[in-house]
């Protein structure tokens, strides 16, 4: 069984985000980038399925300019077998990304697509669902546990107030949540080996997809600075302020 | 799981200017000669450049030699220095500009560039990879591997996935032994392995005591109408002069309406109440500095110790199987306040020495004394020798008279004698009771800030459940010795609030180490009066994540 894992290059979760002075976007100049943490969990799950003898091949795919090869190599160092970079300078919206991934699914014919539930940069939580809709595949989202048996995958979803267990027919799309696993560290020899694993570069045109973003980023504004606190001299003053200034009493 | 090992020709510890220059120069020669060479660089930061912090005004001399086409290759040295201004801050309001004719020549920056050394390092890392170097960010060299005959045989990387008690977690992964014919130690100022080598091989037996400073730096976006790309300000005096301490500030106008502002506090200060962090914060309110920062926004913060003992304190840089380079040895030119060009050059000299040895059939493990000859006949030696009195003069005679001595030495006639300063920085601290308490103003949140909001901007992070990487040789010293005598100065010299004295529920005092805040500046390892704190490598990838620093 082949597994496809889409991964996204995003700003590292340790970095405090700084908005550009013209508010056009988040400043990414010389900022540490990393694989989206949910994608890392997806890669780990796919590699575990391979180690368990369930999957035969793990393919990672990423969309972006050449720099996203770094994240593909990271996935290869974690145990994926080969990579595909869909080469574009355009920052795709969720639907464009889903269309590109659909083309890769049709070419590679994986039985299972495992991906992060969302990326920590745009927080859209859309690409997986859109991909399932475009392919007309069953989908399991927010997955915190999963097991594969013959032509079915059983998943546990984190829903409001509890857990929901579903069984999906393969091929299927699974989007993963934080509690599914603890991703491993890439070892030094595996990082070296990853440099020699195959990595194909394809353009959207080669995949027969015309990029046509429906969503445009208009502006990014940081949250307002928190006002400094004040000290009140007495309970009376506090009550007075709560009543007349903050108007919560 | 057993530790595995791998063999290389050269293993380099630390992807900074010295280490990467060594790597690049080695591969340039190997590629030219059509010879195979295995060179690997290990780096504790999560990415190359992420742990680098410097001013910086950079002299391009070494880069010109290493990559003559660096301009075409888009190296991030974009802003040429247009104007130098040197000031003496007299008090919180007044500053006197030194006429150019009275500024020591070494402080003239015409022909130099204002740049981020972090970004220069990122660029050097790309060049090294293209030349065929294996770079492993996120893999700290935690210990040295010695051969049976005592030579340095390589390094071991740290284990990953240990909990705070040192027990293996589910994600445990053992480190690796990286063995090499020659190992390069280029960890920067006060490298923890460099420190071990200096002691083990007695490398500093003919050298004066090493001296250090702590540099604290911020990056600001300022209004375009206040920005003058290429303007360089340096100065000394207030606020450090109030506590009888020395050091100096810098303010550089880089590209994109950004300025880099910082204060270097010499770590030989004697008043335990002094806080380099708070000195820097209040310094920004001086009209000379605030005129540029007002209306601007602070976007990054960081700190790093610098090795500034210069020529007199320089240890022997070679030992069997290894070389100690750049700021790990102490090749910074304090008179110029520049160490990047000299560090890079030491790397290039080392690369040429090693490559020549290996081509002549050297099997490794030797004490490459040829390096010393090559170093002594290079311009780095010449530069460091000529400025050998600069730091000692300031330490001995203070900013004013010392400054005058330096002016004569650098501009008029080279003084025919050597000034020495053999007092260790950590031994300078006087009892708290004998020193004036310093009351620092509260930060206003506009120009000055507290430590918490500052460490936030350094993007510092360490995996929470891991062994503490700031080790105490004797855990009773902070409370039993340092607290009564020096009011535990670690609370103040640490620029990110790692060390705190707190009270527990029973009202007992506890010494708390917030190691996750650590930005790897190494000041505690240097300045603790009892020399009781040892900085060791945390789990790989931990520490600050500096962009553009």
Features:
heterodimer, A: 249 residues, alpha/beta, nine-stranded mixed β-sheet, 6 helices, B: alpha+beta, FAD/NAD(P)-binding domain, seven-stranded mixed β-sheet, 16 helices, 24 strands, globular
Summarize the structure.
Chain A is an alpha/beta fold and 249 residues long.
Tell me the series of helices and strands of chain A, N- to C-terminal. Answer: EEEHEHEHEHEEEEHEH
Radius of gyration of chain A over all CA atoms, rounded? 22 Å
The CATH architecture name of chain A reads 3-Layer(aba) Sandwich
* Assigned CATH architecture of the domain at 4-68 and 118-207 and 315-386 in chain B: 3-Layer(bba) Sandwich
Q: Quick one: overall form of chain A? A: globular
What can be said about the biggest beta sheet of chain A? 9 strands, mixed
Mean pLDDT of chain A: 95
Query: Gap between N and C termini of chain A, in Å?
Result: 63 Å
How much of the sequence of chain B is in beta strands?
A: 15-25%
How many strands in all of chain B? 24
Number of strands of chain A: 11
Residue stretches of chain A low in confidence (pLDDT < 50, at least 5 long) are none
Cα distance spanning the termini of chain B? 38 Å
Computed structural class of chain A: alpha/beta
Helix content of chain A: 25-40%
Structure, explained:
- The complex is a heterodimer of chains A (249) and B (549).
- In chain A, strand 4 (57-64), helix 2 and strand 5 form a beta-alpha-beta unit.
- Chain A contains six helices and eleven strands.
- Chain A is globular.
- Chain A starts with a strand and ends in a 5-residue tail after the last helix.
- In chain A, 27% of the residues lie in helices and 27% in strands.
- Among the domains of chain B are: 4-68 and 118-207 and 315-386, FAD/NAD(P)-binding domain, CATH 3.50.50; 390-419, no CATH class.
- Chain B has helices at residues 17-33, 61-66, 117-131, 192-200, 276-283, 287-293, 310-313, 326-329, 340-359, 370-376, 379-386, 390-412, 451-457, 477-486, 490-493, 523-527, and strands at residues 4-13, 39-43, 57-58, 79-80, 83-89, 95-97, 113-114, 134-137, 141-146, 152-157, 160-162, 168-173, 176-185, 212-221, 231-237, 247-253, 258-266, 297-307, 318-319, 322-324, 470-472, 499-503, 509-513, 533-535.
- In chain B, the strands form six sheets. In chain B, strands 1, 2, 8, 9, 10, 13, 19 and 20 form an eight-stranded mixed sheet that branches. Chain B has a seven-stranded mixed sheet with strand order 6-5-15-16-17-14-18. In chain B, strands 3-7-4 form a three-stranded antiparallel sheet, with no helix packed on it.
- In chain B, helix 1 (17-33) packs parallel to helix 3 (117-131), helix 1 runs parallel beside helix 9 (340-359) and helix 9 (340-359) packs across helix 10.
- At the A-B interface, helix 5 of A face helix 3 and strand 12 of B.
